[in-house]
Amino acid sequence: MIRMNIRWTMMRGGRALSMRGHSHNSFRKILVGHDGEAAGQSAAETYEERSPREGCGDIMSTPFLNQINHQVNFHRRLVYKFFIDFSLFEYALKQAGFLLPVPEAKADWDTFAQSIDAGFDPNANREIRSAVQYLLNHPPRKQFNNAGVLMFGDTVRPAGCSDTQWLSVLIRRIRNNSFHGGKFEFDPIRDTRLLNHSLVILEAWAQLHPVVEQALRNAH
Questions:
Q1: What is the 3-state secondary structure (H, E, C) of 35-73?
Q2: DSSP letters of 123-169?
Q3: Which of 61, 72, 73, 87 is the most exposed place for a label (fewest CB within 10 A)?
Q4: 44: which residues sit within 8 A by CB, 6+ positions away?
């Protein structure tokens, strides 16, 4: 497990994340919410188009939560895509045997990152290079509970941690900030970049390990 030293800084509110996907390899083709297929559609519209499996009905009526959802400003289609893509990737890691040695079924991202480090070219193209440089130079901060006060702290990269390993930590932090309640003041520039760059990197990693790639292809 990677251990990090924390440099504390106070912060009020929070921020979100995002990504722009232009390449069309097999990883994106198996994902719900493919940019090309969902263009001009909301996440819900895309879901309703594809969902009907037996036993699946309409989405339950939640008027109060709907009101709260609509009063929060964030890039819904991008956040939805990031959620689905990240979840599929973590599913594939577990199916491929990248599991932490604990009773709970938790994906072992560190070991996966080590396994693809030699094959990952951060300069493969301009989009990948830009994504890697942005996350390494402008990493997301981590939320902490400091005696009941919520704070965001900058974390120091551990010695000996490869770029690939550190990127996997940062992408997981973006996921955590997005889906564990850390960020709900969406910065349309900063957060969109974080989400989009994370997706670019996951795209690049998707076919670097044959068992992970096969698990992604088999997802349904």
A1: HHHHCCCCHHHHHHHHCCCCCCCCCCCCHHHHHHHHHCC
A2: TSSHHHHHHHHHHHHSPPPEEEEETTEEEEEEEEPPTT--HHHHHHH
A3: 61
A4: 59
Tokens encoding 142: 């981590």
Bridge partners of 145?
150
Q: What is the mean pLDDT of residues 54-64?
A: 74
Distance between CA 203 and CA 125 in Å, rounded? 13
Rounded Cα–Cα distance for residues 202 and 25 (Å) = 12
Domain ranges (residues) in the chain? 18-218
Tokens of 23: 């390449």
Chain CA centroid to CA 38, Å: 19
> CA 57, CA 210: separation in Å to the nearest integer?
36
Q: What is the pTM of this model?
A: 0.73
Return the closest-CA partner of residue 167 out of 209, 202, 193: 202
**Per residue in 90-148, pLDDT tens?**
999 999 999 999 999 999 999 999 999 999 999 999 999 999 999 999 999 888 888 88
Q: Is 6 helix (H, G, I), strand (E, B) or coil?
A: strand
Average pLDDT over the chain, rounded to an integer:
78
Share of the chain above pLDDT 70, in %: 71
What confidence score (pLDDT) does residue 173 get?
Answer: 93
The half-sphere exposure of 119 on its side-chain side, counting CA atoms within 13 A, is 12
